[in-house]
């Protein structure tokens, strides 16, 4: 299992490296991940919870969000939210054609939630890539978040004894969570050269006078969010009684399993880079 995880991780690192250096490839890659991730999410709930979901409509609507960012198409400022509202209206209109009303609220809510949770959240990676020094910022969020994943996994396997939240994820431990935070902090310090245009508290990261406390705060903050993203997906999988969302990446699972920790860190990092710039 460890060898499979290492091979899959190496492939993902190579693909992510291309996305960092080629902006249009980043948009295309995120779009593909969103489409597959939505398919896994909707299929998981459809098969295991018996929810009547507008799966292919949700996937199509979810794909439009990253594509609109990729092609710089905006009807209004932050038009993704307007688009999600329109998607909700279309879902209600589609429901009028159905003969039965059972499960209407659950089906519509689940479809909208999938679009928000997978498509909108992950699409912030494209927005980060298109910012000033976008390649450096994208590198930073990937390094901080994924190093946290690696640290939690390695420390948890070696030293994990105290369960974190066993009813959600029996294999996750408190020691692993602490190790993940430590690795995220290390990732923040390692990302210092890539954060030259990211201002925090009036101080520009990457300058010689930067306090270590700023980097430590970013590492801990994003590390916590990354672990919350992981636990959130684990909660959903536990509800569906499945181990992985898919099997596209041996040793890791599905696309949703590989991006879960980024779903909360990506939008947070984007807004921090905008607000504190």
Helix content: over 70%
Cα separation of the termini: 42 Å
Helix count, per DSSP? Answer: 11
Structural class: mainly alpha
How many structural domains in the coordinates? 1
Number of strands: 2
Rounded Rg: 19 Å
Strand proportion, as a percent range, falls in under 5%
Outline, from the CA principal axes?
globular
Numbering strands along the chain, what is their spatial order in the largest sheet? 1-2
Strand/helix succession:
HHHHHHHHEEHHH
Average pLDDT for all residues = 86
Description:
The structure is a single chain. With 277 residues, the protein is mainly alpha-helical. It has one domain (2-275). It has eleven helices and two strands; from the N terminus they run ααααααααββααα. It has helices at residues 2-21, 23-49, 55-70, 79-95, 104-122, 124-129, 134-159, 174-190, 212-240, 255-259, 262-275, and strands at residues 199-200, 203-204. Strands 1-2 form a two-stranded antiparallel sheet. The N and C termini lie far apart (42 Å). Mean pLDDT is 86; it is low at 199-210.
